[in-house]
Amino acid sequence: MHLELNPDKRYYSMGELAKAFDVNASLIRFWDKEFDILKPKKNAKGNRMFTPEDVKNLQLIYHLVKERGFTLEGAKTHLKVGQQKTLDSFDIISKLESIKAQLNQIKSEL
């Protein structure tokens, strides 16, 4: 899963995130209820609108649960105990993956 955050975009819809993460919207809705770090706004229709900060937190939750195999309780504990350290590490890994993708793109164009 890799979602490039648009610096000009303030909110992301549930559908956009479900597509980017390749999961059902119900899973994102479930994670929203389960994880306190997610705080999406609701528009006049009641639809969740996720901020870039929420998207980063969703990426972290996805990484812990789907990629590293944490249980929900394990992920919650991990986030509470080492949230800042985990976020910093995750940001570094995300940036390195982005650089790797760019380098592979350049390599394929050579």
Task: Please outline the major beta sheet.
Answer: 3 strands, antiparallel
- Name the helix and strand elements from N-terminus to C-terminus, one letter apiece: EHHEEHH
CATH topology: Multidrug-efflux Transporter Regulator, Chain: A, Domain 2
What is the radius of gyration computed over CA atoms, rounded to a whole number of angstroms?
15 Å
Quaternary form: single chain
- The helical percent reads 55-70%
| Strand fraction | 5-15%
Class, according to the CATH hierarchy? Mainly Alpha
Task: Report the end-to-end length measured between terminal Cα atoms.
Answer: 26 Å
User: How many domains?
Assistant: 1
Mean pLDDT: 85
| Spans of at least 5 consecutive residues with low confidence | none
CATH architecture: Orthogonal Bundle
Strand order of the largest sheet: 1-3-2
Instruction: Give the total of beta strands.
Output: 3
| Structural classification | mainly alpha
Count helical runs: 4
The outline comes out as globular
